[in-house]
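Sat 14:20. Reprocessing the chain from the morning session after the first attempt stalled halfway. Input below, unchanged.
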Amino acid sequence: MIRLGALLRLIAGAVVLAVVGWRVGSGPFVAGLRSITSWSIAVAAGIGVVTTVCAAARWRVVARGLGAEIPFTYAVTAYYRSQFLNTLLPGGVVGDVHRGVRQGRDNGGVGRALRAVAWERTAGQAVQIAVAIAVLAAFPSPVRSWAPIAAAAIVASSLIAVLAARALPRVRRVLAPDARHALLSRRSWPEIVAASAIVVGGHAVTFLLAAHVAGSAASMTTMLPLAFLVLLAMSVPFNVGGWGPREGVAAWVFASAGIGATQGVATATVYGVFSFVACAPGIAVLASDWLRAASRRRPIEKRQAWVTARTSC
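Finished this time. Tokens:
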């Protein structure tokens, strides 16, 4: 049964998508889909391999700081599975929760595994926000004048969160050691920042590719800040399989930049397809999981059928 919060987030994403469709019509969505070519799909998939491997490496570093070693192949396949579930299911976090629970059960520590996933995603978001603020401050954009205010608000929010955590002994006893060992150690933070920067860069390049495929002739200096604004919107957990805020913000920022709302929606549509293609290997991972589970069930079912037949004789 869907919880009320998840249902409200799903409805909010659907409403945003419906409003965008009502304002611009179906044309930009169809135009975006028609503009996609096989070479662009291949490039997007290749970028997806790089970003997924780097994100999985970041997860391994954070988990290592918390005392859990995750094999490289396991991390990459688990990350593909979680990305696909995040894209497919409402909210955008179901795959991450599944990744943490699955890894915790495999290694005997669900709580620690979920904390590792939460810290890993938090670190990635922090780097993305930092890079976005730098880009928005450096290049002209509809919100350039707001970049210093946003930076100040983020710093203030972070200080408030730290002070609140320090005021709660139980929270401090868990969060402080986690942050010190998983994120801030001399061994961990350079690897986390480097991996996160590559992931953020890969997503930005994919958006620029989507804009080019959708027919935008805007320069990179014009498009880059718009890309980061849309990427920030995608982190909002109000979406329908990844759709909703992305298209709404893309329509707004493209219109504000003089490129046109329809061009923004077409670009967001292409990016949505590219995102799905990038995480599509997760389908193979899920299928492999199902086949392994089915193969384990068969001997048990045969044994149960044999026992039932013997008992009935």
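The chain has one domain: 4-298.
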